[in-house]
Amino acid sequence: MLSATGGTMGIGFWVIYIAVIFGFMYFIAIRPQKREKKKQQEMFANIAIGDSVLTSSGFYGVIIDMTDDTVIVEFGNNKNCRIPMQKTAIVQVEKAQA
Description:
The protein has about 100 residues and is of the alpha+beta class. It has one helix spanning about 10-45; strands at about 50-55, 60-65, 70-75, 80-85, 90-95. The longest helix has about 35 residues, at about 10-45. The termini are far apart. The model has no long low-confidence stretch (mean pLDDT about 90). InterPro entries: Preprotein_translocase_YajC. Keywords: Cell membrane, Membrane, Protein transport, Translocation, Transmembrane, Transmembrane helix, Transport.
């Protein structure tokens, strides 16, 4: 015969089951995303004038000026091709050689 608490499995089973699911989701989705965000913030903090960068659109350039949230990037050998863009458009940084 079934009991009033939900059959053969009690409420404790469901609480543990839900906790395991949330724990699994944390380690699969949330934790790696936080780690990637921290890595990206470190990269933005270490950007300096003269660094070679790769933009999210696939262009390589050199940073020639910076403000708080924007950079001016010079593309190619043409000194007239200078484009201002947000720092978040940078996906990879290679430090300038000293």
